Amino acid sequence: MTHRITRPVVASDLKDAAAAISFALDYLQPHEPFEFLNEWREGKDLSPWIEAWEQDQEEARRMTHPEWMFS
To answer: How many Å separate Cα 61 from the centre of its chain?
Structure first.
């Protein structure tokens, strides 16, 4: 089951294994969870993943806006 994120995500939110796994499975592209979870396990900074996901969300919002036109 996918859960909708209702507040900004920060790297500290993903310190918990269940939260990291849920984020990976629910919000990343199908080819991304393996790399994401390996970085999580290695203790790497997950901020770039969150930033990329936020950018994807913003782009999706722009593309679904009624006045959006392909350029």
So the answer is: 15
Domain count, the chain: 1
SS3 4: coil
Contact assessment for residue 22 and residue 5, using Cβ atoms and an 8 Å cutoff: no
By the 10 Å C-beta count (0-12 exposed, 13-18 middle, 19+ buried), 59 is classed as exposed
Q: How many other C-beta atoms lie within 10 A of the C-beta of residue 70?
A: 4
pLDDT beyond 50 at 1? no
pLDDT-derived band at 14, boundaries 50, 70, 90: very high
On whether residue 6 sits in a domain, the answer given is: no
DSSP letter for 68, please. -
Question: Minimal CA–CA distance to 47: which of 11, 22, 9?
Answer: 11
Q: Is residue 34 part of a domain?
A: yes
Amino acid type, 68: W
